[in-house]
Amino acid sequence: MFEEQYRKLNQEVKPSDALNEETFALMKEAQDHRAAMPPKPLRWKPAVLIPAAGTVAAVLVATILLAFWMSDRNVNKEAFDAVGNLDEIISDEEEPSQSEGQEQTENQPDTEPEDAESSGTSVDENQSFSGSSAPSDDDGKTSENPTKDPAEPPAEPETDEPDQSMAADPRNPDIINDESTTTYTTIRAFLNALAKKETPGYGTNYYNARDLIIVPSKLPEQTRFRHFHLDNKTGKYSYSYIFTANGKEYFLDIEVDAETPKTLRDLNVQKQLLAEEEILTGKKGNQLFYLFGQNDEVTVTLTEYLSSTALTEDEVATLLAQFELERCSLANYLIDITF
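^ that's the sequence the OP posted. Answer follows.
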């Protein structure tokens, strides 16, 4: 009786939509953090035991052979000492050969060296030969060694200082890859890694998606992309361009201080707020300021290459007349620009 009454009272009870959405987000987050299989225990295999046994056997055989060799060496030494000293035997064998060589040299007729002209080869006057005496002049004095050509420049001493011409150009991309920063050479490369959840720190330190990334929708002419820096610990990012205008080069640096989502639920909430998002702008000196929504701040800095003078607001407004920012859309082709 009580069971039937309980069913009538609670058969229409259902969870709310908010509870279903939270449960779905938690299940999705748990799916992204699947547990890894435990590592297999290390086991000794026959492939390791057999070579080890062979090594021990080889050591034993080498020890036995060494003992026999040492005993045989002692016997040969006693027999060798009975013959005589090694130095005496060698000296007795060399003396006859030396005396025979002296007799051959005494009996050999004197021969004069062949003339250079009769031998058919030309000899340079300044050429020197090792092991022969230097030619003498008419006064009987030995000629000095030939000197270097005075027209030949002296060799420069070697130094450890780096060549200034080989120094890195500050206009080139600034590549930094360490524990805190990862560099991408195009925004497209970063977005592809983000879509595959392969950016460092994703799922652990932050969450993010393409439609939350702030990128330019318009850029000045003759603009090249330099680098994209990702903070692996916070998910915040910055990137830089370089462009030429009126014969001068300018750096365009963009720093995005965004509040990255910490969970999948925060990520879905931020995506839903994009439809009602407002963008506020401001400027001061050589900088432009943007506020996307309530939390994502962007600072744009324009500087002239090799100039210590900061640009004015009017100069920045003229140079960046063709510059705008947006949340990255699928039709944005500026994310493919490279250096």
